Amino acid sequence: MSGHHPQESWESWNSRDSTTIREEETFELGEDGDLQGNPPKKSAMKYKDGSSIDWLHEEALERERDYVKKSQKSIRSLLSIWADSARVWLVVVATGIGIGVAGAWLDVLVKWLGDLREGRCQAGFFYNQVSCCSGLDPGEFCTDWQSWSEYFSVRSIFAQSLLQSSIYVTLAVLFSGSAAFLVNIYAPYAFHTGIPEIKAILGGYVFDAFLTPWTLLIKALGLALAVASGLSLGKEGPLVHVACCMAYMLSRFFNQFKHSEAQKRKLLAAAAAAGVSVAFGSPLGGVIFCLEELDTFALESDVMWRGFVASAIAAVSLQYIDPFGTSKLVLFQVTSGGDTWRAFELIPWLTLGVIGGVLGSLLIKLNVEIALYRKNSVLNQYPILEVATVSAITAAIAYLVVFTRVQSSELVANLFQECDPARGDYHGLCNPTAMWENVFLLLISAAIKLVLTAWTFGMMVPAGIFLPTIAIGACIGRAVGMLTQSIQTAYPKAWLFLSCPPDPTIRCVSPGFYSVIGASAMLGGVTRMTVSLVVILFELTGALSHVLPIMVGVMSAKWVGDALGEDGIYNVWIAMRQYPFIPPVDYNDRGRTAADAMRPFGTLVKIQEGHSTLKDIENLTNKYDFHGFPVVRGRDLIGYATRNKLLSFLGLHLSADTSIKKCRFSSPKQQLPSVENNIDLTACLENSILHLRKEVPQAVVVRMFQKMNLHQILFTHRGQLDGMLTKADVVSLLAAHFPHTGALSAENER
Amino acid sequence: MSGHHPQESWESWNSRDSTTIREEETFELGEDGDLQGNPPKKSAMKYKDGSSIDWLHEEALERERDYVKKSQKSIRSLLSIWADSARVWLVVVATGIGIGVAGAWLDVLVKWLGDLREGRCQAGFFYNQVSCCSGLDPGEFCTDWQSWSEYFSVRSIFAQSLLQSSIYVTLAVLFSGSAAFLVNIYAPYAFHTGIPEIKAILGGYVFDAFLTPWTLLIKALGLALAVASGLSLGKEGPLVHVACCMAYMLSRFFNQFKHSEAQKRKLLAAAAAAGVSVAFGSPLGGVIFCLEELDTFALESDVMWRGFVASAIAAVSLQYIDPFGTSKLVLFQVTSGGDTWRAFELIPWLTLGVIGGVLGSLLIKLNVEIALYRKNSVLNQYPILEVATVSAITAAIAYLVVFTRVQSSELVANLFQECDPARGDYHGLCNPTAMWENVFLLLISAAIKLVLTAWTFGMMVPAGIFLPTIAIGACIGRAVGMLTQSIQTAYPKAWLFLSCPPDPTIRCVSPGFYSVIGASAMLGGVTRMTVSLVVILFELTGALSHVLPIMVGVMSAKWVGDALGEDGIYNVWIAMRQYPFIPPVDYNDRGRTAADAMRPFGTLVKIQEGHSTLKDIENLTNKYDFHGFPVVRGRDLIGYATRNKLLSFLGLHLSADTSIKKCRFSSPKQQLPSVENNIDLTACLENSILHLRKEVPQAVVVRMFQKMNLHQILFTHRGQLDGMLTKADVVSLLAAHFPHTGALSAENER
């Protein structure tokens, strides 16, 4: 464990947030007592923010509750079981509807704020451009919508564009500045995407301050402002966070979730699926995302079902509200479904995959460097100013380059479309004479967006990385597609293009679909996800035959990206912020065993049976903030006592003679010097303690932590304790290859 | 462990199949040596058919191989790593294409054989009715296709129908008889659906005879014959088996899969996904099915990706071949996508859910009873005759009732359609005056199909349960839909129906969609799956708004079914055949601990360090067929030695003095009487051995076996061995509630 002291880092996790985070947690619904007035169960463990829950313990508690309820054969207990289940479904369904509605209104709000940057509606200030001009016959000119220069009756073209651009930039700065202000003052945890934190929380990290209603409100509002400001960010990740906040808020109305960290997490997993479902209009994508990226359904089989229900209900709610009146669920409808593809196209698609992998890695590296710079420079002091400046720069550049002026979602939607004379031209993309200009502009836009995204993702505003990544990839993909198309039309007789239809008026290469591949590849490079990306993009395009090219793009990008840098951007942020999250990866232990990683016996803080007194134990619990302590007799392992149980025992038994009586843990009495002078602490021992031999390969140990959500493993040899390994140790083992581990952790912020 | 002796049942698994199954395994590609001529690794474990693999051991081996390859920094080792990966993908892609092609040709074959029962094509014997009559103008009458009475120029109507029906029944008997003959003589493992076995194999059961090319051939051929014979069975489950056989066959060409049971299983998981994908034309459904029902992706994260790739490629291949020229992937296209539904329809849908749950349970119970009867009666002796008789009865009844005469898939496709005057009437279903007759006929058909399916599923032919279940559910659903519709049209002003459009010509209730719900509910009742069913049916209907009703149907059926009987039909068969499969369910231990389930110390077969001699160990390995033996010193646990390692050690060290030298397992030497007279067997100990306290709740132990694919857990207290629990014990623990556990196991067949 090269230099890094595992239990210490553990302790710091435990202690640090109790001061920095607890202040936020203002949302407490009533006291801890049961609704029926029963006192809270003694065995329910209290976790501080920043600690990790003990899954085995939590699940044991839940089983116990279940068992108690089911063993009482009364109608009341039967009703209580039904009510428990009904409450779960109530929260799941309400979260689904809630996030569907929230997603729809967010879209409406963003559209209105975004349009406000260009003009206003005469019929009413609160109409956006589309609804302002709705109800017109085709061909009729929309007079209700006025650009600002029309509104202020400016005639000179120079003054017009000056006015338009300055209002555009000013409003952008105003929106993003208010978002940053809100986040900075009211809910600092509402910044960023939220997915790294959700991953950690679902894995057992306790971080309730991250899910308060206050955070929910600020994140949703700030997100709308930030997206409308035109900053290079998306709403996808933050929507997952919003959905989780919603589920948490709803769950607080019921005591059954308050007392069970495990139940709470199962609800959050379902909420996360609903969030993705709304963000992409892809209900199955939501389920698979939770499965692959959040690794949540390892929890229990019915979590997948709940996630699916929540995600379907969310998608249906969104479709029912139909914010844009298109009755389409997906943002970027792709129309090229019917087209077939040819084998030679694999060459540009593989190229796109490689580009996606390289640029994805570059984006991650750039983002990390900027985050470190922000942290260690004077920028740290002025987060709002930083947001305002970046937003002003973004808006100014955006106003100059045509492809960046529209909102990213609109740009992507247009790039995904094929050129079709019947449906008009998007930003001049379909003008065949301007091909080189367009390719140049697309590549410039991609480069600008890459840098801006790397900067934006991590600023003090809610910001998702999905949409900007898609936009970068779509620009590059379209450019490659247009190049391929121009080569094909220039040399239609080349052997490579023989599979194309001989009739030159029939399109052989579909640049719009290249955009989709480019976006897939870029997403693959940045997030390193596989199945969920393909499913999401499959639900966008709808055409089964196009799944294979998307797979090729995602897979080659992932391979190239993995070769250049190990992790996706979410895992990089988890490592930088040092959350106790064990990624579901295969760990290559290079032949090392647990003995190389464990804290050896000598360095452990232990309770010595027959030696330690209650006073000693009290001192121990005061001095160390560990989750628990191994109990030994000499070197023989007796068991493992959790801090919580010791504390509650101490609370009951602290009397005058604490410094005399020795502790006993169900040892045969004759082994202890005098029977009167000892006190039985057997009740403090944990039952579910895993022992392994220290010769076990590290990969097996890691697998155990991953699969069983363990908190610690003890290593014994013939009954003697050799050492111990905690979740924190495993986390640092897995993050050891990443150079900036913990660089942004709250610990370092003090 | 009420009466059931775990280690004994274990032994019988090990021993029984070595005689009954080994004979089948004729497919061996070359010798066990490496392609490069290296001798096989000493540490590779050999498993007999009928045993369970040791996942931890297999994975450790794989890691070791990986490590060795990666630590050699030569180009050769790099190429070898690439080649390994390339071979995996080669097999995955080839399996995908293979099963896509096989599925398409199966469809063609079934269609041709099925049509042959009614007539023949003049233009060529090998055309089916559709291709025989293709190329005609609309309205033109097809003269090429002749019914048998036309072919034999029979004029009298009575003689016509006699001839037609006797040819119909005769061919049905002939087809099903040949299928049963083929299965019975050449590949007994090709009978039934195959999914229970695949589940067990993916969980670690060793059953190579189940996956031979011979089984592949007979299963595919027999399946076509059985489906064409009109027996009440489907092709879905068997296609999964066929896909797995294909992957196994392809994998045998490469040594890397021969030596690794874990790698082989990862391939099989991908193949199973491809099989489902082809069976339903639902690539995502395939992935989710593997996830939910086969519980395979717990293995490793990249297995899901492989499964997805295989399943997409299979679906694309199927679509590319396009066996029916419809360029539609799914069998039962549903056209009612655009319709909305009303709240009052929840009442009939919930009713359908309840009916599905009740009938599903009934079907399972009936099927179990028939299987037991078949086993214990004289039927056991005449499997082919049984098939022929049931097939004759099925065909005779089918000829009488209009809805059962067509093939199930055609019936289902028609029941799923809404009545539309433009598209003609299906079997008179849309005749509003014959409503009551139709409802009656539908219910009769459902009842007939239910009994026939319960009988057919388990006979000596390849048989899936999905399609017949869908057909039963679709009949009932359609009947309920027609009843609802008639009530609504009779009382359009009732408050319940106020949400319907006032115009009576606009359809308010869509009976076709009720069919879909009925099918979902019935499937839910029989299989107890949730997400994968909904995804498969969602991919069939395509309409997001209809996902919610399908969910309601599946969920209520599952609840009712679970209340009536615990398990889905696959798990019931697994229990009856006593495969070592641990279902991924929550185990309710009712407060019991591992101490109640484990084999206590006294009953264990142990190796006593310092007492046992090599001779003793030889006797032990000859006498007991266990996977391994705990090594103790007194009661102190030293370790666990696998039979395999002991055998290979014995092979090297068996010399004259075996009965004198005592065994030593890395004990300090002074503890043993004389240093010269002992021999060091430390190398035989396993590293990855889990110890727990016996006070651990059973639920935790079960969870460990489920998640970690363990083979055994040892229970210790202060270094002393208290007992042991093996996978076999856990399997019988989980199957204890089922009354007929092991009733059909191979053991009982002798």
UniProtKB/TrEMBL annotation, chains A, B:
Segments crossing the lipid bilayer: 88-110, 167-191, 211-231, 238-255, 267-291, 346-364, 384-402, 439-458, 465-487, 529-548
SUPFAM superfamilies according to UniProt: CBS-domain pair, Clc chloride channel
InterPro entries in the cross-refs: CBS_dom, CBS_dom_sf, Cl-channel_core, ClC
Keyword Lipid metabolism: no
Keywords on record: Chloride, Ion transport, Membrane, Transmembrane, Transmembrane helix, Transport
Acidic residues: bias regions: 25-34
Stretches the record annotates as Disordered: 1-46
Predominant subcellular localization, coarse grouping: membrane
Biased composition (Polar residues): 9-18
Ion transport among keywords: yes
Localization per Swiss-Prot or TrEMBL: Membrane
Membrane topology: Multi-pass membrane protein
Protein name: Cl-channel protein
Organism of derivation: Lentinula boryana
